[in-house]
Amino acid sequence: MYTTELQKTATIENLEDPKLLDAFEARVAADDFIEPKDWMPEAYRRTLTRQISQHAHSEIVGMLPEGNWITRAPSLRRKAILLAKVQDEAGHGLYLYCAAETLGTSREEMVEALHSGKAKYSTIFNYPTLTWADIGAIGWLVDGAAIMNQVPLQRTSYGPYARAMVRICKEESFHQRQGYEIMIAMANGSPEQKRMAQDALDRWWWPSLMMFGPPDENSPNTAQSMRWRIKRETNDELRQKFVDITVPQAEFLGLKVPDPDLEWNEEKGGYDFGDIDWEEFYAVVRGEGPVAKERMKARREAWDEGAWVREAAAAHEAKRKQRKAA
Ligand code: BYC
User: Fold this and answer.
1) Atom 3 in ligand 1: which residue has the minimum CA distance?
2) Which residue in 155, 180, 197, 224 has a CA-CA distance of 20 to 30 Å to 8?
């Protein structure tokens, strides 16, 4: 599949006007932002549409695991915070769909691609949230991994994507802190609460490392995306940074990272860590994650149940236009 995709990319690139392509690449190399009306190679447009729309889908599907706990949050304070966080994720999805639309694909087309299973969303959201400690672990690890990946995207070469990332990163940073604060409370609570915190870390650690995508040598998109400055750091670079920042945080909590091979490597100034189960990753990417079917069912139902809202909004807009014209 990837080979076909790469061949398609190569063919399209060969069809591009070399002068336009050179000028485009010079602008990217000079760190200019590319804007919606600027000329861009089709492969650049396609890669960005894929990445931004998948990012948007991840934000929207990502509301489900946490939404599951809004009614069961342990206090009013926790409930208000979680509610605000889940609403933030909806906002992120909306900015990102808007950014992707500037590349010429409609929101309906993107949503249809998600619902038909053609478009991907982050593997991490195909795992269940079994206890309240999972909400802490998601904020700490999942939002932590997301920030690590998204901070460099504030300098991605496509202007609307970069600008959307600025606000998203600010909010993700709050999300990470609220998750870590839950983990601090759990890890310093009763023995049962500490066990729940450890169990959540055990289950979310490896899927969080998978969020960064396949290793660089097996990542079909990284080389070209780095060249076009869509990605500013590779999957492995970001994964390493995440491990280096997160392990001391686990130590501070008095929790154990579930990796017997984890070891500080003085020479590289970072941790060595064990092998990631890439078979599991690809199975989840193929839609075989533990709660993948449930997630897609929930999204399709939400879309169908929201049809009347979309129709009402369209009818209101039509009336408004009519009144203005009259
Ligand atoms: N899950 O060549 P590669 C959040 C796919 S949500 C699924 O390395 P690329 C939050 C990849 O798409 C934040 N698929 O690809 C929300 C590609 O397949 P296609 C989500 C994955 O694009 C709610 C193939 O594997 N963040 O924070 O260069 C609550 C080969 O990969 C995954 C973003 O979306 C994966 N984990 O690099 C809480 C960040 N990894 O499309 C929190 C934006 C890889 O060629 N995206 N694949 O068929 C990116 O930075 C990049 O797209 C990736 C992958 C690093 C994810």
Assistant:
1) 219
2) 155
